[in-house]
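Recall from the previous lesson that a structure prediction takes nothing but the amino acid sequence as input. Here we apply that procedure to Acetaldehyde dehydrogenase (Acetylating) from Aneurinibacillus thermoaerophilus. The sequence below is the only information supplied.
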Amino acid sequence: MQLDRDLQSVQTMRNAVRRAKQAQQEFKGYSQEQVDRIVKAMADAAYEKAYDLACLAVEETGLGVIEHKVIKNQVGSKGVYESIAGVKTVGVIREVPEEKVVEIAAPFGVIAGIVPVTNPTSTAIFKSLIALKARNAIVFSPHPSATRCTVEAARVCYEAAVKAGAPEGIIGWIEEPTMGATEGLMKHPDVHLILATGGSGLVRAAYSSGKPAYGVGPGNVPAYIEKTAKVAQAVQRIIDSKTFDNGTICASEQSVIVDRNVREQTLRAFKNNGAYVLNEEEKKKVEHVISPMRGKLNPAIVGKSASVIAEMAGIRVPQETMLLLAEETQVGKEIPFSIEKLSPILALYTVNGWQEASDLCERLLALGGRGHTLVLHTEDDEVARTFALRLPVSRILVNTPSSIGAVGATTGLTASMTLGCGTFGGNITGDNITAHHLMSIKRLAYHAKDVTVPKPGNGTVDVRTASAKEKSETGQIKEVVAQVLAQVGPVGRMDKQTVAAIVDKVLAQL
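The prediction returns the following tokens.
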């Protein structure tokens, strides 16, 4: 009997989860040395296939730039591996002798990995590495438009893992994903955690599945060029970042806010580096392409080049155009240039000083970027710290490209393809997700202090711990000794009788 596609997809998911559970039961007993050897083999294999996987992703999805996806795959493999290589994830991982506490790592079990169409191969590599580093199994649900490349990335990691000694079934996937199979995966009783990277609908489904979940929110990242910035350098970094993989990274800049003092200099720098500044008529045409239904992004522009988007809008731009730029004054869901665009399109706002810039950034973030990322280009560290204290974001990047800086390529942040937005954005964490988020910590705690437990009916209770009471009693003894010595008078070398007399007086007063 031939099952229809929906039923077949669900059955494939169930089979993958069953195999993953069996494999994880064995894998959780592996030593740190065995785990590390497997993870290194996976990272090496994925790094070696970075170009092939990038080509496959662009071919299948039609999104992004091959050379840039290669970098994503390299960060997702080698970059992530280097960030977790020395992390302990097996047995005792930390001891705190002064507190008499020992911390022990435990895996979660089977993880559901939801993979987006924008980063289909790098995300699969990254999630495979951090899942197995923490001794978990993982089952992937690819985006329907990126199934082949996501499955191939998972297969590269899986085959390398098994060859290095991992049990068969430790990484699984849904060959032909459907919404029913994805929802079934997230609610499967043998799945213990959901690692969701994707659209807001999928993230909400992950949170409502009844399982623990790490989800992420949208970016809508503002970039502020403050009056002390090195403008030419700032603009070049913004262009490099915004055009990276045609803007598909959620941490890429969406709006540029510039101080009026350096506005003209900024515009010249954009024009001289491949940006096309739209006039009012052209801006209206592009607005319709960005958001035909106001408040919603047109998915047809995601990951497309500036020239393709210009052609969609019916405007002609120079062949070398890398970025479409339009001056904007308004903010709102009905203002297309102010929303997250996931393509090489930028809005440019002009402000009078950092206070006005801060207020504008907060309004832009409120459209759908709260908790994600903010970029500052400034030589004034006081301004940077003020923004960090005031604004509701988890990552404040200074003088660096946002898209690759947020994932750890140009900053000291943890290498990650899943960026939490914290409670600002409705997520459980604002961290760059990595291996230590995928394991439980058990704590072995020894008796370290006494507590006096009074018998019922004894009246008032002294809730101080023994250590606090001892400190109090020690102070009391010192006070009494001082009083006794004052009574005895000046002493030089004391004989045994004098000492005995002092002790008797101290004990009598206590």
